[in-house]
Amino acid sequence: MSRSTTAIRLLAMSGVAALALSACGGSSDGATTGAGGGTAAGSTVAGAPSWCGSKKITLGLTDGFGGNSWRLVTTASAKDEIAKCPSVTSFAYADGQGDTQKAISDIQGLVAKGVNALVVFPDAGNAMLPALQSAKEAGVTTVPYRVNPGGADGKDYDVWVGADFVTDGKNWADWLVKTLPNGGNVLFLSGPAGNSQGLDELKGMKSVLDPTGKYTFIGQAPFEVTNWDPAKTQQVLSAAIAKYPKIDAIVSDFGPSLVGALPEFEKSGRSIPALATSDGNVLSCFYEAHKAQNPDFKLFTVATGNDNARLAVQWAVALATGGTPPSSKQFKAPAFEDSVGSKPNPVTCKKDLPGDIYLSAQMDGQAQAKLLK
User: Fold this and answer.
1) Whole-number Å distance between alpha carbons of 373 and 1
2) What is the CATH number of the domain that holds 201?
3) 60: closest CA among 79, 42, 41?
4) Exposed, middle or buried: residue 269 (CB in 10 Å: 0-12, 13-18, 19+)?
5) In this structure, are 63 and 203 located in the same domain?
6) pLDDT in tens, 139-164
7) What residues contact residue 352 under an 8 Å CB cut-off, 6+ apart?
8) CA angle 215, 219, 220 (to 5 degrees)
9) Which domain holds residue 160?
10) Would the pTM count as exceeding 0.90?
C-alpha cells in the first residue's frame, strides 16, 4: 500500500489470530534486558535465551487497541521474542479495538481456550484488573505491561512489566528548560483517560518545570485525551490550535500521530512550536521538510518503546516454562533524537523507508517496512 511520509497508516487487527511458531532458538536475551538473578523453576533449552525454560506452553497476547503502526511493530517485536523460545508451541493474538469490554472478553476467551501464559497491554487501566485477576486465578501466568492496571504483583497477576515514564517526562522537561529558558505554555497529549503512562510522564515533567514557576500547562487536565489514535489526535490538536493563541511547546507520548495536525499552525500564520515526544520516521521526515519555514520548530524524542513488549514476553515465558526471569521489571527507554544538541542522535529521516516505522526499535527499519507492506 502506497503512502506519503506525512501520513499515519491505520491498520486494524481484529479478532483473535492464532498461528503456530516454528521451533527456533535465539542466541541472546535481546536488547531490552539481560538475564537476571531470578531462580529457574526448571531447566533451560540449549541454544535458547536463559529465560526460555524446558516446559512446553501456549501463549496469548492481547492489546486494548492494536490499530496503528506502533502497535503493529510492537506486536511483531513480541512475536520475534517469542520465537526465540522453542518451548512456546503456539501463539494467539487478540485486538480489543479500543473497546474495553472487548478487551476484557479477549482475555476471558484466551483463558477459556487454555493458554498457559498471557501478556496483556491493558490500555483501559484499572478497568482491566478483574479480568487479569480471573486469568491468574485460572492458573494462567499473567503479565500485564506498559499501562499500570492497578493491583499488585503475585496477588492480582504474576508481574507488571512497566516502563520508566517518569524519566521520559523528566527528559522532556529538561530539554524544554534548555530550549525555552524563559518558560511558556505547554500542551500535553497522552492516550486514554487516566492511563498510568500519561500520569507518570506528567509527574516527571512537573518535578522539573513546576519549581521554575515559568511554565503553564494548558488544555484539559491532566492531559488531552487522544487514545493514541492518530485521527483523534488530529481532532484534539486542531481544536487546541484554534483555542489557544499561544502554544510554546507540545509534549506528546505518541509523536507520529501529531503530523496530520501540525500544519494547522502554518495555515494560521503561526510557527510550529517546540515539540518533545516519542520518535517515528514520519515525524523526523516532517521535521526535515518543515523546519526551514518554522523558526520555533525544534524536536526532541525519546525511544518510542516498542521493545517493552519483548521484556514482558521474557517474563511471561520465564515464569511459565521454568526459565530464569529477567533482572528488571521495568523497560527503560533512552533519549533518542535532539534537533538542538544532536545528542544522542540528530533528527534522522529515512526517506527510502515508510513513515510509520520507529528507528529506535530493536527491529531494524527494513524489517519494519516489510512488516507494514
Assistant:
1) 6
2) 3.40.50.2300
3) 79
4) exposed
5) no
6) 999 999 998 999 999 999 999 999 99
7) none
8) 125
9) 15-164+305-333+366-372
10) no
